[in-house]
Design brief:
This protein is mainly α. It is built from 19 helices and 7 strands. Strands 1-2-3-4-5-6-7 form a 7-stranded mixed β-sheet, covered by helices on one side.
Length: 457
């Protein structure tokens, strides 16, 4: 079957994102090589010349394909025009820079003009790339996850913290908008509005697209939005299009539920009819999901002075993730200085923030565990390959949030079961190569069937 002209243009136009990275790479590489040659007096003229030439050639190809892709419409005209003309200018100035580069010996002023032209080419390339990103991801893509101080300088409001508590979550802000933002807004934003449809706010959603309203309140079957997201993925009208990740079963069902409930924009989730099925679907997107112990607490950060004091004693202290206030602390058995009770006591300065502790293979003794018993937020403890006995374990019974305990290759016996079973939050226990017998292990497992006990057998 022959393609019509619009299909022909779009077929080739969609190669634009593939080709456009080639001129970007070659032009930037030419700029880097030029900088190296200026600073290090290295002869990279041949590589620079080819970089500018190839960048200009593929830039022209990318421009042609971009114009084909733009014929599909749905883009912000202002942003598209800036992207288009800065792209054309980038290819043009890359060609001019190439011309000056190969004519250093023939034109007296070529060298001076070349440097200005190359710098202008790199600036235009940056602007072109930025506006291309706007067209693809929306105008706020660059600063979407920036710190609030930077967002404020750019004139952007601080992002709203999503509410995930079932009783407080808003059905539009925390459920519907969350789904749109993750799967739909990339193609339906102020810079790229496929089908003239915006999904940014209640007003734009109710306005609909080029074919009119997309939602019929109370009736998903008559809602164009719901029809599009439930079509066969191979259908031309399927949304999201362009090979993007489709909505999950849970996300689709939640949008159906929202439409059935009359598409409210200002109600809380609990104001709507909530079946167990819907509650489970909400949990899949983080609403009403029970927080873990660590997630439920917000702690102040450890001061730099305390951090330095702990590190000075030979401990390794690091956050368990990103900018978390929770820390993992460890003391290597290979440290030149042996661990002592005095060294261990320094950790009490950060006892609320330490949730993982690894003292495996150290000289830790039973009475030292009385200090460890004060780390009430401890969830993971490794004291394997030590001389700990049943007496030491008794000091840990107050650790109600301890989930993981490794006492592999210690002196524990069956009598330790009483203390272990008092650790109500314990989920995993390693007792390989201890003096706990198979019968003792069986007693622990029978008394705590949800506890996973690793015996090495």
């Amino acid at each position: 079957m022959l393609l019509d002209s619009s299909s022909f243009l779009l077929f080739f136009g969609r190669f634009h994102p593939l080709i456009v990275h080639l001129p970007i790479g070659f032009i930037i590489l030419a700029g880097i090589f030029e900088l190296i040659s200026w600073k290090k007096k290295v002869d990279l003229n041949l590589a620079i010349t080819y970089g500018l030439l190839i960048g200009a050639i593929f830039g022209i190809i990318a421009i042609i394909l971009g114009l084909m892709l733009a014929s599909d419409g749905g883009y912000n005209d202002g942003v598209l025009n800036i992207h288009k003309w800065t792209g054309i200018s980038t290819a043009a100035f890359s060609s001019i820079a190439y011309f000056f580069k190969i004519n250093f010996d023939k034109i007296n002023w070529a060298q001076k003009a070349y440097r200005s032209t190359l710098i202008l080419t790199l600036v235009l390339l940056s602007v072109t790339g930025h506006y291309g990103g706007n067209l693809t991801h929306g105008s706020t893509y660059l600063l979407e996850y920036a710190p609030n101080s930077i967002r404020l300088l750019a004139g952007l409001k601080p992002p709203r913290d999503r509410i995930t508590v079932l009783d407080s979550a808003l059905v539009y802000e925390d459920v519907v908008h969350y789904i749109f933002e993750s799967k739909c807004i990339v193609c339906h934003n102020s810079d790229k509005a496929k089908g003239e449809l915006l999904l940014l706010d209640p007003e734009s959603i109710l306005q609909g697209g080029e074919n009119g309203p997309i939602i019929t309140a109370g009736d998903p079957s008559e809602s164009e939005l719901f029809r599009r997201i439930t079509l066969d993925s191979n259908h031309d009208d399927f949304m999201p299009s362009e090979g993007r990740t489709p909505l999950t079963k849970e996300e689709t069902s939640l949008l159906e539920w929202w439409i059935e409930e009359g598409t409210p924009f200002d109600k809380k989730v609990i104001d709507l009819v909530l079946s167990d099925r819907i509650k489970n679907y909400l949990k899949e997107i983080g609403i009403g999901k029970e927080l873990s112990f660590l997630e439920s607490l917000v702690l102040p950060s450890v001061s730099q002075g305390i951090y330095d004091s702990i590190a000075a004693e030979g401990f390794r202290l690091k956050t368990i993730s990103g900018n978390s206030s929770w820390f993992e602390v460890s003391y290597s058995s290979y440290n030149s200085d042996e661990l002592t009770k005095e060294k261990l006591s320094i950790l009490l300065l950060a006892k609320e923030n330490i949730t993982w502790m690894n003292l495996s293979g150290t000289s830790v003794q039973d009475d030292w565990l009385s200090d460890i018993g004060q780390f009430t937020n401890l969830t993971e403890l490794r004291i394997n390959n030590t001389q700990i006995t049943n007496e030491g374990i008794k000091h840990l019974v107050a650790l109600e949030h301890l989930e993981y305990l490794n006492v592999y290759a210690t002196q524990l016996t069956d009598d330790a079961a009483e203390s272990i079973l008092q650790l109500s939050g314990l989920k995993k226990l390693y007792i390989w190569q201890t003096k706990i017998t198979p019968e003792g292990a069986a007693e622990i497992m029978a008394a705590a069937p949800e506890l996973k006990v690793e015996t090495g057998i």
